[in-house]
Design brief:
six-stranded mixed β-sheet, 10 helices, 19% strand, alpha/beta, globular
Length: 371
């Protein structure tokens, strides 16, 4: 295996992807699978099978307003930039509706001749590993996990804990009840990073503020269950929590739904949601009890999934695919970040100071929650 290295997205590339993410979209089914798992070109452009690329989603789908959507937006930007057709021989997505489909979808991507296959999310690790072992001439990428000792697999991971640390600051500087919540999708090493960073950020900010702030943590056991997200959020808000950070993919739609319902009713103090992976400010739009337009997305942690997909697709296009390498994306290179959202000036000042401390190496954020 080649030596792992630190790789920066570059400001211009990340800015492009974050702009795309903020614009929404991604709910384009023209490159999705049909009932037999195949894709077909349905837009203008050229085909180039030797440099084609496909993303295989986790169960949240390409319109999850989070992780998968960001990946698809990045691949779409790449395909359009190079004049490729959407579909087989160009760029496409294959949507996974259940974990049992991961291996089948990888096989489908291979059989259609895609040159670079992206597995979006650590849950696809086994399927990508198996597919790569059987197809050594195909490029594979696993996002949010690491596959060692395979020269045709590039592993891309993000320092989510660093951005989550800043989300903890945002929550601590905003809460009026001194109770905040974290909702995770499925437990594992990736969401561990989000939880650990958030809890440490809350603790550090609380110490600065001279507060005692409680963090309640719950998992939905799914990245695609909005109803479960709504139910957990309802329980948290009813218990006195007024800020929730979710790291739960499509499940987070239910968190926003519950917060909107409570704020529109106007029966108590405002509650907030912190978005994840892409700018989710638009998901927090609502009309308050007085009929005024309002927003409840406090901030969002950003994850340059789309930028990473675009970068790796470009490398493959240039016949310089970094197979066997582990690429890291963090605050220092712009791979993760946080939005200003609806943060107060005081909160933003504290967050910027905390961010710089991480970049300078004065603060190291844990990747696993404290026992």
């Amino acid at each position: 295996m080649k030596k792992a290295k630190l790789f920066g997205l570059g400001a211009a590339t990340l800015a492009l992807t974050l702009t795309l993410a903020a614009c929404g979209g991604g709910n384009n089914s023209s490159g999705s699978t049909d009932s037999s798992g195949g894709t077909s070109a349905s837009s203008g452009g050229t085909t180039d099978a030797a440099h084609s690329a496909v993303v295989i989603t986790d169960i949240g789908g390409v319109d999850d307003k989070s992780f998968n959507q960001s990946a698809w937006e990045g691949l779409t930007a790449w395909g359009e930039e190079h004049g490729l057709a959407e579909g087989t021989g160009g760029y496409a997505y294959i949507q996974s509706n259940d974990a049992s489909e991961y291996t089948t979808n990888v096989d489908s991507a291979v059989s259609q001749g895609f040159n670079t296959i992206f597995g979006i999310g650590y849950l696809l690790e086994d399927a990508i590993s198996t597919g790569a072992a059987s197809n050594p001439d195909t490029n594979f990428v696993i996002v949010d996990s690491i596959i060692d000792d395979m020269d045709n697999v590039a592993s891309a991971t993000f320092r989510d804990n660093e951005a989550a640390y800043l989300a903890g600051y945002a929550a601590a500087y905003t809460t009026l009840t001194n109770q905040v919540g974290f909702i995770g999708g499925e437990e594992g090493v990736v969401i561990d990073r989000f939880q650990a960073g958030f809890e440490e950020g809350v603790a550090a900010a609380a110490e600065e503020l001279g507060k005692d702030i409680e963090v309640k943590v719950e998992y939905a056991a799914s990245f695609g269950d909005p109803a479960k997200g709504k139910a957990i959020a309802a329980s948290m808000y009813n218990s006195g929590i007024d800020v929730i950070y979710h790291a739960s993919g499509g499940t987070g739609a239910g968190v926003f739904e519950e917060a909107i319902a409570l704020n529109e009713a106007g029966e108590g103090d405002k509650v907030w949601v912190i978005g994840v992976d892409r700018d989710q400010e638009a998901d927090g739009d609502y009309t308050d009890a007085d009929g005024n337009a309002a927003n409840l997305t406090l901030t969002s942690t950003l994850k340059g999934v789309g930028a990473a997909v675009e970068d790796l697709a470009n490398r493959a296009l240039d016949d310089d695919f970094p197979g066997g390498e582990h690429l890291y994306y963090g605050l220092a290179d712009g791979g993760v970040d946080i939005t200003e959202g609806n943060l107060s000036d005081e909160a933003m000042t504290a967050i910027n100071a905390a961010k710089q401390a991480i970049i300078d190496g004065d603060v190291t954020v844990s990747e696993t929650p404290a026992e």
